[in-house]
Amino acid sequence: MNKILLIMQREFMTRVRKKAFIISTLLSPIFFAAIAILPSYLVSLEVTDVRTVAIVDNTMEFTNVIPSTDYIKIAYINDTPVEQLKGKLDEAGYYALLVIDSTGIPNQPALTIYSQKQPAIDVMQHLENTLEKEIETRKLRAYNIENLDKIMADVKTKVTIKSLKISKTGEEKESNTLIAMAIAYIMSFLMYMMVLITGNQVMQGVIEEKTNRVVEVIVSSVKPFQMMAGKIFGMASVSMLQIIVWVVMTAALAGVGINIISEKTAIKPSTEQMQAMAQADPQLAQAQQLATNTTNETGNTFINSLMNQNFPLLIGGFIFYFLFGYLLYAAMFAAVGSAVESITDTQQLTLPITLPLILAIIVMISGIKSPDGPLAFWFSMIPFTSPVIMLTRLPFGVPTWQLALSATLLVATFVLIIWLAAKIYRVGILMYGKKYTWKEMIKWISYKG
Questions:
Q1: Which residue among 147, 176, 205 closes a domain?
Q2: What are 133-183's pLDDT values in tens digits?
């Protein structure tokens, strides 16, 4: 055991002293936090560039229908031919040109937009949404319905379902399916990447020591199994250190970023604005206040749902499944590394090892949509795919017996695989001058001594 610890310590210290390890450990949390908060931050930003869209209405039915906004100005052109305008959009100071032609069908115009570059999505949405609403209103008015505007205002409804999770003790907590899906995807994909990367690092380390003949010196004082175990557990300790640093730093950075964005995006109309609106139109002021409360409540619900996640279970589950998932695959990668002398010889041998991981990523999509479905259930039980698929199911809630069964199968399979891998490793680590296949490597398991 002492020899395994010495090799483990050597492997750990060799890895953590490298500049690449320090840089990746410190910079990765910034990257992860940026992934978590940047989309929300970018959505909250407003485009402040003023763009002018020229409109030529050949039907004369939609003149002055599309209004200008703070940053999208609308200019209706009646005295310049379309062909002439198309050729000098930049010179005239127009961002784009919208031409409205007749199709011969009432309230169904042909719309064409011309621009020097692809129009921005906010410009297209403003034009399309405005015209859609106008055409819908005209079609409804053709039915000669009295008080149409009032009916439309009364009928317009937005449905929001508040999701609450009830614990066995009866405690209610706000939840959000989209948040659970995002956490499931991030955890599963991160597990896939880390197991694959660290497993390959173990294999490369074994190949380097074998190629440099360092292993011949080491095995003179330690058993091959002790050497393999020390290398695998040493890499595991390095990865665990990275995960702990990543979790702490990412949580801290993301928490600060979410608070800043929440304060920035919260709608807080001034008292003067509300008083002026109340005097001009009491109903409009009431509607504005309701919309403000609804928007802020939605933001608070999102944050509450995120904070109500069972993070001890998620973090503990991630650490457990990463640790034993890594050990399982690292043992197989180490066995492959012992049988070859260069990275180029590993492609054929590593394919059977990586296939379950690739299959797990494919099943992950189905697992996110249906975490309790039979496909997700069985793949979360199979030890070679459970490190990825169980993390896909974990944010949605997994029965304790399923979690215990999956963990037991994973640990038992790890013990079996590391025993088999050690038998391959003890023979392959001293073999030179030949490319070996899985068939020959399996024969090494039966060798004695």
A1: 147
A2: 889 888 888 888 878 777 877 777 776 666 555 656 666 655 556 677 777
Does residue 411 fall inside a structural domain?
yes
Residue showing tokens 């000098």 = 88
Sheet holding 51-57: strands in order across? 72-76, 51-57, 96-101, 110-115
Same domain, 208 and 356: yes
Domain span at 57: 51-147
The answer to whether residues 80 and 219 belong to one domain is: no
Distance (Å, whole) CA 363 – CA 118: 37
Q: Which pTM was predicted? A: 0.62
Q: Which of 348, 345, 344, 347 is nearest to 434 (CA)?
A: 345
User: What CATH number does the domain containing 126 carry?
Assistant: 3.40.190.10
DSSP state of 67: P
Instruction: Please list, in sequence order, all residues whose beta carbon lies within 8 angstroms of the beta carbon of residue 325, skipping any fewer than 6 positions away.
Output: 191, 195, 386, 387, 388, 410
Q: How far is CA 339 from the centre of its chain?
A: 37
| Shared-domain flag, residues 323 and 380 | yes
Tokens of 3: 């020899």
| 177 within some domain | no
Tell whether 169 is covered by a domain: no
How many degrees, rounded to 5, is the angle at CA 249 between CA 244 and CA 253? 155
CA distances from 237 to 9, 10, 25, 165, 373 (A): 9, 11, 14, 36, 35
In this predicted model, what pLDDT tens digit does every residue of 92-112 receive, in sequence order?
889 999 999 998 888 889 999
